[in-house]
Write a structure and sequence with these properties.
Its cofactor is Mg(2+). With about 425 residues, this protein is of the alpha/beta class. About 30% of the residues lie in helices and about 20% in strands. The protein contains twelve helices and 20 strands. It is globular, with a radius of gyration of 22 Å.
């Protein structure tokens, strides 16, 4: 009963959607277990079609796999329905979608509060997407959240929303001088969503347990990444959920004993969106080069991504924290043409060399990267399909990453397309 977890090893945008798509035809279920529509996966099919997915698991493009949105996800029903309709219009079968009835809903007051609070934070803002994810998770923890199953009971929906708005409207109106949310209009809007979403709502935990009992393969797909984890990331500049491997058990209802493989995805360099510490960030022509050649703009927001050299301290931390068995390195081709390719192998903090993640937020903010420079390569690597097809210096780069992370590199991405990969070890038997 194999369950596989797929996570990001950096700050997100590593190319997890491409890896899910690679595995999609060989797994039976693809499960999204955390986050909301603040994340995005870009998948390019063999015929060149590009799909930007936000709430739908990347496995939606697989012709056979069941696709599941787990209880750990927060769902904006308007966004989800728009995504369902967009995929259907392009001929993608969305009838295989199932959504946990325990997944929490993003409501209008969540979006309103997210935007206004971020604005009032000014220079101290976190860099959220303004889509209501944080406030929705906040209400979940405060036990006043509204779940998908509540859409199926109009009385419960109205009662829960009325209770929530009793507080939220006071905050919006009296604290932030914003318009209050209308109860009746919101109930009417969300009951209309209920009619369309009802066929998809299910008890997904039992569905996945039964699948594992039958020996079927379940792929658990996280949004965002390790360094954005609420508990283990660069707090407070993090997301509001647990996209690490441990979060997969909670967010999908999968027992830990069912997981036998953890695949981590990392770019051959590093990017980050939003505020927060980033030791290897580049502010020079090299950073502009990585952003331009790598097309580093957010799938969901369109924001420019901050770019920097590969940080082996972060990657090794992610591998140890998640129990990574296989590392996938994407976008190696972006480094082509650089005379030297630095790797951060440690930090200097207050004049002291450290090789592991510092304990305190203050130390991480002041960490200065210690670089090791490797020779670059000029050859076009996009046609490479085996390790021997890569130039010697590219092979040395991958070998050094593998050594620093103490985790085997199984796949190397050499282009954005589904087939543009070098396979060193099989991800699935």
């Amino acid at each position: 009963m194999p369950a596989i977890v797929l996570i990001g090893a950096q700050w997100g945008d590593e190319g997890k959607g491409k890896v899910t798509d690679l595995l999609g035809e060989r797994v039976d279920y693809v499960v999204r277990y955390s986050g909301g529509n603040n994340a995005g996966h870009t998948v390019i099919t063999p015929d060149g079609q590009k799909y930007a997915l936000h709430l739908m698991p990347s496995g939606a493009l697989s012709p056979n796999a069941m696709i599941v949105i787990g209880n750990g996800v927060v769902v904006d029903p308007k966004v989800l329905l728009a995504e369902i309709d967009g995929l259907a219009e392009r001929g993608v079968d969305v009838s295989r979608l199932r959504i946990s009835g325990d997944a929490h809903l993003i409501m209008p007051h969540h979006r309103a509060l997210d935007r206004v609070i971020e604005r009032y934070l000014g220079s101290s803002r976190i860099g959220t997407t303004g889509r209501g994810i944080g406030p929705a998770y906040g209400d979940k923890v405060a036990r006043i959240g509204i779940r998908l199953q509540d859409l199926l009971d109009p009385g419960i929906l109205r009662k829960k929303l009325e209770l929530a708005l009793r507080e939220k409207n006071q905050i919006l109106f009296k604290v932030y001088n914003r318009k209050a949310i209308d109860l009746e209009a919101t109930v009417e809007e969300y009951l209309a969503y209920a009619e369309r979403l009802k066929p998809y709502i299910a008890e997904t935990r039992a569905m996945l347990w039964d699948a594992l009992d039958r020996g079927e393969t379940v792929l658990l797909e996280g949004a965002q990444a390790t360094m954005l984890d609420m508990d283990h990331g660069t707090y407070p500049f993090v997301t509001s959920s647990n996209p690490t491997a441990g979060g997969a058990c909670v967010g999908a209802g999968i027992p830990p004993t069912a997981i036998n493989k953890v695949i981590a995805v990392s770019k051959a360099y590093t990017t980050r969106v939003g505020a927060g510490p980033f030791p290897t960030e580049l502010f020079d022509a090299n950073g502009d080069h990585l952003r331009k050649i790598g097309a580093e703009y957010g799938t969901t927001t369109g924001r420019e991504r901050r770019c920097g050299w590969f940080d082996a301290v972060v990657a090794r931390y992610a591998c140890r924290l998640n129990g990574v068995t296989d590392l996938v390195i994407t976008k190696l081709d972006v480094l082509t043409g650089l005379p030297k390719v630095p790797i951060c192998v440690g930090y200097e903090i207050n004049g002291v060399r450290v090789d592991d993640m510092p304990m305190s937020q203050t130390d991480f903010h002041h960490a200065k990267p210690v670089f090791e420079e490797l020779d670059g390569w000029w050859e076009d690597i996009t046609k490479a399909r085996t390790i021997d097809d890569l130039p010697e210096n590219a092979r040395r780069y991958i070998a050094r990453v593998e050594e620093l992370c103490n985790t085997r590199v199984s796949v190397v991405g050499v282009g954005p397309g589904r087939e543009e990969n070098v396979h060193l070890h099989p991800l699935l038997p």
